[in-house]
Amino acid sequence: MVQGNILILNLYSVIILLILGFHARKNSEKESLRDKLFYLVLCFTVFVLCMDTLSRFDGMVFTFSHTVNAFGNFVVFLLSPVMPCLWLAYVHLQIFQRERETKRFLCLLGLVNLVYEVVFIIFQHFECFYSIDADNIYRRGPYFWIPTILTILLMLWAVGMAVRSREIMEKRDFLSILFFACPPFIGVILQVAFYGTSLILNSVVISLLVVFLNIQTHSLHTDYLTGVSNRKMLDTHLREKINASNEKKLFAAILVDINDFKHINDLHGHNVGDNALENAAKLLRQSLRTGDFIARFGGDEFCIIADISSETDLDIIVRRIYKCLSTFNRESSHAYKLSFSMGYAVYEYGSGMSPEDFLKRLDTLMYEDKCAFKRRSRLK
What we know:
This protein starts with a helix and ends with a helix. It is 66% helix and 8% strand. Helix 10 packs antiparallel against helix 11. The protein has 13 helices and 6 strands. 30% of the residues are buried. A hairpin with a 2-residue loop joins strand 4 and strand 5.
């Protein structure tokens, strides 16, 4: 492939990634490690594409051309494992949904990068990976394949991790993670087969586009830990329900709080606390009908919205939740027992309550239920 074509391809790749990065940054949850990792993968790929562009001044003769070519190749080789390591951490978090564990995993991957970089700097002193002659021509060294092999191994690690955990993953996420590795592998084959061809980074752009459309866009409205809708989606859904309501089309909402959740965290640790949140979400989903909406309101609180127009029907759902809760506590082998406080009401059409006012009413009712729970606990 002509160098000029590669430069144009790199330019298009950078533009696509910048557009993805803009949308990813604009819609991301600032505290979400998953979104931060995806954004880092985007930014780092843009950076390496820029360095790869510098390394494409191979054979050109102008002031500092040799320096530019040498610098671009050095950075590309030095940092080649970083992007697959960031992707591997992203896959780890996507599968296990444990930010603390993923951060520890990132430390391990950082050590892998550090070892590689030290080895690269030492061996490149003897031009083992590549060399650039007096005519500014790039030449492969005897160990040029090591960064490529390391990248392949890291990508295969991510694929293997996804395959082993496919039963606990959503099909969309699983297929997207599997596909992510396909374009880079094709790029590796082309790079080995055709000297001077390097499409690995450009193929990563295709992979990132698929991940953005299938995972990141979906996750914009999903709570990363429990899998239910997030607060942003709740606010949108509640506003739509209020705007669409009329005398014949009402809805109800239930605000649920996990009692003594801080005690579970303090006594058993945050991992067990996260497990309690996941089980609470599963329990609530099992109690609801198809089409009912559930979101994580924040912390240890959840909000349910259902197309119900009478207090009687609302009481049926509440009793069903308590029944599922009782069954869970009776059959569960976990170190904790779950308990809920709930505030629930049918939205009154014509009341003029805004989403914020309605949520405040539910919160007041839930607080009254929590106070009653505490009184009962003190009497035991």
